[in-house]
Amino acid sequence: MNNTSHSKSPMTRGGHVAAIAVLGLPLIGGHVAQFAIGLTDTVMLGWYGVEALAAVTLASTYFFVLFLFGAGFGFAVMPMVAAAAGAGEDRQIRRCTRMGLWLSLAYCVMVMPLLLYAGPILDMLGQEPVISQMAADYLRVAGWGIFPALLVMVLKSYLAALERTQIVLWVTLGAAVMNAAVNYALIFGNWGAPELGVRGAAIASFSTQVVSFVAIIIYALKVLPEHELLKNFQRPDWEMLRKVFRLGVPIGLTTLSEVSLFAASAVMMGWLGTVALAAHGIAVSLAGLTFMVHLGLSNAATIRSGNAYGRRDRDHMARGGKVVTVMSLLMSVIATVFFLAMPEAMMSAFMDGSDPHKPEILAIGVGLMAMAALFQLGDGVQAIALGLLRGVQDTAVPMVIGVFSYWGVGMSASYLLGFVFGYGGVGVWMGLVLGLSCAAVLLMLRFWGVVIGRVGEGAGSRNM
User: Fold this and answer.
1) Which long-range contacts (C-beta less than 8 Å, at least 24 apart) are formed by 245-248?
2) Are 264 and 352 in contact, with CB atoms under 8 Å apart?
3) Phi and psi for 333 in degrees, rounded to 5?
């Protein structure tokens, strides 16, 4: 992106659509490919057995709660690198990226015990003992993947902020293909490999994360040698570390509050039984796939709003914000049509046709898919609002909004509707709809009612 190209004449709506598409499509593709790694696990384990599917649904939810909180440091790097690149400050790019890597490594060390000894924690959450044990076995192997996964998150943010989104896409696509191949070999014992079931999926996940990290760090060092990311890597930069930490922790907590809403819903579905949890796993995977589109658009919104914010170009930011929001809304409408029109066909792709539990899973899943259709709108809008706010480095108030919406509204409503009022799985998902919708409204009010008015008035980003 030319950082001065919009300062002389306003960009048309069509220009915004084109710019967002060029920047966002590879990011969307990268997120979809990343999501395909977990989706492949879900599909193949669904073919392998209902218990295996339920266990990995539980384990993956647990892993991603920890992963996405730590990813806050990676997300913080994106607007900081974009701002530094706009100012031509290569040293600042190196400093914030390096300290993002430092903080990610430190976080991984802190949370590894929670991954290695997850069994007792899952038992305390009221899960069936067999499912808890299988999930714990998965995490003892796959949990080590948090190290390469979070380092990759920082490097992807660094590259995306420099608008090198194609490499992010290709590395992630390669990882998805590799994960599918290793899954096929190790889960089922194909191509002469041992049949390892859940453990095979864990090995595939870990090995894929390692290969992704190796590929992306080699690219960064060879193509962008001027940034010297690993030169004197061992030297601390306490000033920049504090800046990345202050920006990253609220982002991580906001993400954690959203993801933990879905984690809590998985736990609650587990209370309803293995079949209900398996249906939840399929429905949430399909909903998550559509969310990757919104997440890619959200990343594009972060980069472009950050660029406009650096120039104090309120009109450009407002016009771009409206365009990216409409693009997200259109995708929500398309997803809603599919979820309501063909839920059984979509869910059947995740199951062996001869599975005796298939009719029960579909009976529960159709209701969950209807709820997933309802929260498409709120889920997309809140993601876009967060992206716009992060671009202007406004993270503290969105964190409070997120905690209130996802936990105070969503989690409470899920429990009350699902168990107190007796709506079961559909009630749990009604809570998701309410929490995401509340976040969407409040975050958009924050951006359009408060933040957009400050742009161009000289308010420093650190004070927002």
Assistant:
1) 245/73, 245/103, 247/76, 247/79, 247/80, 247/393, 247/395, 248/72, 248/73, 248/74, 248/75, 248/76, 248/100, 248/103
2) no
3) -65, -45
Is 335 in contact with 290 (CB distance < 8 Å)?
A: yes
Which conformational region is residue 189 in: left (phi greater than 0), alpha (psi within -120 to 50 degrees), or beta? left
Backbone phi, psi, residue 115, to 5°? -85, -40
Give the residue from 95, 85, 58, 248 showing the smallest Cα distance to 164. 85
Instruction: Give CA angle at 258 (256, 262), nearest 5°.
Output: 105
**Residues 4, 14: Cα–Cα separation, whole Å:** 18
* CA–CA gap between residue 26 and residue 203 (Å, rounded): 27
Dist CA 367 CA 105 (whole Å):
41
* Residue 78 CA from chain centroid, whole number: 14
Q: 455 near 314, Cβ under 8 Å? A: yes
Distance CA 320, CA 299 (A): 13
Contact, 207 vs 193, CB < 8 A?
no
For the chain, 464 residues long, give each residue's pLDDT as a single digit of tens.
444 334 445 666 667 777 777 776 787 777 777 777 776 777 788 788 878 888 887 888 788 888 888 988 998 998 888 777 766 778 888 899 999 999 999 999 999 999 999 888 888 877 778 888 888 899 999 899 999 999 998 998 899 888 888 888 888 888 889 988 998 999 888 998 888 888 888 899 899 889 999 999 999 999 988 888 888 888 888 999 999 999 999 998 998 888 788 888 888 888 888 888 888 888 888 888 888 888 888 888 888 887 777 667 778 788 888 888 999 899 899 999 999 998 888 888 777 667 777 888 888 888 888 888 888 888 899 999 999 998 888 888 999 999 999 999 999 999 999 999 988 888 998 999 999 999 999 999 999 887 777 665 544 433 33
d(CA 239, CA 296): 30
| Cα distances (Å, whole numbers) of residue 221 to 103, 155, 163, 227, 229 | 20, 11, 16, 8, 7
pTM of the model: 0.78
Residues 314 and 335: their CA atoms lie apart, in Å, by 32
Task: Identify the CA nearest to 244 among candidates 73, 391, 89, 90.
Answer: 73
Q: What is the phi-psi region of residue 273: left when phi exceeds 0, alpha when psi lies from -120 to 50, beta otherwise?
A: left
